[in-house]
UniProtKB/TrEMBL annotation, chain A:
Protein name: Urea ABC transporter permease subunit UrtC
Bilayer-crossing regions: 12-32, 44-73, 118-141, 148-167, 173-190, 197-217, 247-271, 283-309, 321-343
Bilayer topology annotation: Multi-pass membrane protein
Classification via InterPro entries: ABC_transp_permease, ABC_transptr_urea_perm_UrtC, LivM-like
Keyword set, alphabetical order: Cell membrane, Membrane, Transmembrane, Transmembrane helix
Pfam families recorded: BPD_transp_2
Source organism of this protein record: Nocardioides ginsengisoli
Organism superkingdom: Bacteria
PANTHER family: HIGH-AFFINITY BRANCHED-CHAIN AMINO ACID TRANSPORT SYSTEM PERMEASE, SLR1201 PROTEIN
Annotated localization: Cell membrane
Keyword Nucleus: no
UniProtKB/TrEMBL annotation, chain B:
Protein name: Urea ABC transporter ATP-binding protein UrtD
PANTHER family hit by this protein: CONSERVED COMPONENT OF ABC TRANSPORTER FOR NATURAL AMINO ACIDS-RELATED, HIGH-AFFINITY BRANCHED-CHAIN AMINO ACID TRANSPORT ATP-BINDING PROTEIN
Gene that encodes it: urtD
Domain ABC transporter: 6-242
Gene3D superfamilies: P-loop containing nucleotide triphosphate hydrolases
Amino acid sequence: MKQLQNWGRTWGPLLGIAVIAIALLVVAPAVLSPFRLNNLGKYVCWAIAGVGIGLAWGRGGMLVMGQGVFFGLGGYAMAMHLKLEAAMATGGPDAVPDFMVLYGDGTMPGWWAPFRSGAFTLAAIVMVPAVVAAVLGWAIFKRRVKGAYFAILTQALAVAFATLLVATIKQTGGFNGLNQFTVFFGYNLYDPTNKRMVYTIAATALVVCLVVVWQLYRSRFGELLVATRDAEERVRFLGHDPANVKLVAFVLAAVMVSVGGALFAPITGIISPSDVDATASILLIAGVALGGRALLLGPAVGALAVGFGRTTLSETFPDQWTYFLGLLFIVVVLFFPAGLGSVSSQVVGRLRTLLPTPRRTPIAAGTDALEVAP
Amino acid sequence: MNDDYLEIRGLSVDFDGFKAIDDVDLTLLQGRLHFLIGPNGAGKTTLVDAVTGLVPATGLVRYRNQDLLRTKPHRIVRAGIGRTFQTATVFEGLSVLQNLDIAGGVHRRAWRMGLARRGTPSYVAEALETIGLAGLRDRPAGVLAHGQKQWLEIGMLLVQDARVMLLDEPVAGMSAEEREQTGDLLRRIGRERTIVVIEHDMDFVRSYADVVTVMHAGKVLAEGTVAAIQADPRVQQVYLGRTAEEADHA
């Protein structure tokens, strides 16, 4: 019995990931129209970001209110490449993006040039957010900035980032952002087969991210991260610098969010400041909170649900949908602060306290407690 | 004698002009149970805080040629100096085994942190036996009895290879039986370690102390065996007067 329990604890979550993988990679492409599948692809990108936020916030206790910054770093890096690819497809190897001719004098800033290379772009999507998050995180965590101050700081960064993008119309397309991509690494984006391929890449990336955090959560690092979240000072006296523990989680989260942003650009065909600003950052968090931030699958499923809800509600109630969303959050925060994914365990816990059991069932290995948010 | 001792010279801690620790000299030798006693506010806990890097201090604290006052708290732990706190601070959601395991960072390379634990590491199994919680290894630490939590904390110090253990009131709130078990545990592990115990309970001090240091108002008032300390008139005046009454109760 106990062995079965242990087995379930180790492999049960993988089973959950497998279900998501089959649903996204096999079922969805078979039953959804290309338009709906593309919409789902958009939610999948938010879900990838959600997994990163779950890692930083749910397990690491860092309320990352400005993940739009990293979403944007990945999104814009990809979009710059796609923009250059589109330009080069029509205007030859030295062509510059159309908006630079439209708003500027038709010259391209030097820092755009490397993004002509696909390999450089892919590296930048991973490395740029990693470096930014490492420098930022180092400065923040070594100074022991945490709690509300950390949240406000990251939120301010998202605002500053979006403002910067709007202000630099000649370099980044400004308020309109970057759009009208035609080619994705040599594949024509008007071809539905290729669009489906981009969707498949996104869905695969989500599954990979889930497997990465699954391993992370069962690792010693995962235990240490939760310990740091719950008792940072105590961890210091175990011989670990909590700043380093948080930094690793923060950087990994930033990279995941960036990958989500990078795939968002080709799937939606646009990335603009409104996809990366404070509001967008909060909507990213919203999905994670809804699904259950400290759970393995909660953030991804929550982000998918919020994405789906946004589309469905806005189709039915174009003006009022935000109220529904707001109401849903109030209900969730009031009754299920650990997210909808925790409802079942909460109900079981409630029942356990109600039923007069002679002895409490011994909870082995304590992983149950790990699943519950603080 | 080997070089396994903690040397404190001219240690002072200043809280906005208030001298919580005032020019303290102490040498803590291996293999002796060293007790730190004194009235409330004497600076005992502050002394431990200063040594472990929790509060800034001036002076010299040296262990194995390392100046601890210039070392970050987590590095001090890695250097082999561990402490407990007045209230047990185990990770309540984690099991006994996980609590011990999480203290074992000193045994691991950073990249191996990404792997899950397989089986029970030998140093964890050893600590489980030593603190007598082997039967409760899979229990969440939150459901342990008060005394067991303190033993778990001591076990965590064992796992993190603390050569110097600074224990802040480890037997407070324990039953007589638990106190005895704790005292025996400290004796056993103290042979090859430097153990400092902050304690109020004079019976416990009398039973187990090899050396007692009395602190008062941030200074060291006296140091010696229990008998010598009790005979010291200055100690009787500031401290033992009250404790003698308590001893009459017991």
